[in-house]
Amino acid sequence: MIHDLKNPDLFRQSAFICGEWVPAENGAAIEVDDPATGAAIGLVPDCTAADTERAIAAADAAFAPWRALTAGARAAILERWHALVLANVGDLARIMTAEQGKPLAESEGEIRYAATFIKWFAEEGRRASGHDVLAPEANRRIFVMKEPIGVAAAITPWNFPAAMITRKCAPALAAGCPVIVKPSDLTPFTALALARLAEQAGFPKGTINVLTGRPEAIGGAITGSPVVRKLSFTGSTRVGSLLLRQCADTVKRTSMELGGNAPLIVFDDADLDIAVQSTMVSKFRNSGQTCVCANRILVQDAVYDEFAARLAKEVTRLTVGPGAYAGVTMGPLINRVAAQKVEGHIDDALSRGATLYASGHSPMPFDRFIAPVVLTGATHDMLLANEETFGPVAPLFRFGSEDEAIAMANATEYGLASYFYTENLHRAFRVAERLEAGMVALNTGSIAMEMAPFGGAKQSGLGREGGRAGLEEYLETKAFHIAGLKL
User: Fold this and answer.
1) pTM of the entire structure?
2) DSSP H helical segments within 327-421, as ranges?
């Protein structure tokens, strides 16, 4: 797939620091493979702490001139980046599928989704304004000013290698903050391609830096630097907690989009056509490798059997295979470790009384491919009830009353997303207000969009991305008092 690019210049095997494409300071590199075959795609620098310090210094030097530009001037560069991303959707999707594994149609969808954040924040940055406050004295004025927070760092995951970058970087850049991006070492090429397009769009040197490689040296230098004033991270709660501890000494502002254990509740008055189709979107997109996918599917007694049958019918229609193949609707998992976890959850559930109600077919011999399954008779002592499966497993839990469903849904330390299905407006408001999650969806499996805040409660994270809240994460609030005015 990499060899079929219309614009081969997008495939970069170097880090991007201060406007230059460079190797690691010590010459070290790591290999990136194709999840569908295990074959090597290419090499990227294994950047060191010294490389990271260079990127931080470059971003620091770029901060003053970048923030000095008008919001409109910054927006114009973002708009050019947006246009270039859309002009190169096909190649960006090929790169993503080669390193991440998702079907080409999903990759193209993600690239277009990623572009919406660039467009949205180019426009929203023009509206980053403060306000005045009525003062207690006639000769005093109080102004609330909004200013860019400073150098920002983004540590992004492998499951959405384009969208997680633009969702973090676009608001930072629009606000006037240079950025340092650390993409996953499993999917660095999408990030580097986006950086190449950003370079072509005209971002000044040092405004965008991309460091590839393993996380330890890069992350340690970022969290320990007093120059980096903001860190945005998407990943596991375990790693997020570690980063929070590491950021404490320099008191950085942080955004943490962490683990999930999303419930999806189907009440007995739900429109089952909507519920089934939405469950397919939520559960099986990206082979179940999303932080907001339905991890626990709770179905009321009266519709449990019918819902299971309808869902099973749809699951058996999924086509598993390499993302580059025509007609494939579900690709491989990212690596063998991920596949082993999913297999372990299935085996554990079956050993504790679950039933393998339906299974898709995976004709692929490579061990990262997992056939999608529907499990009935799921219970709360199973691993899949308490951990993110991060794979194509749909466990169905049975419940009787609304109160029981709410208690089951909230019985987790996580609170990222919750979904529920009902045609009763009274129930809709009751349930939405009682679910402990940062995002709640009624009669839909789609909650991620550029104009809406995205983030979690409890151990699912801090802060918000997307919407107006996403821009505020990169703005400092300053109160400016003027006294002694002669009126």
Assistant:
1) 0.96
2) 336-351, 383-386, 402-410
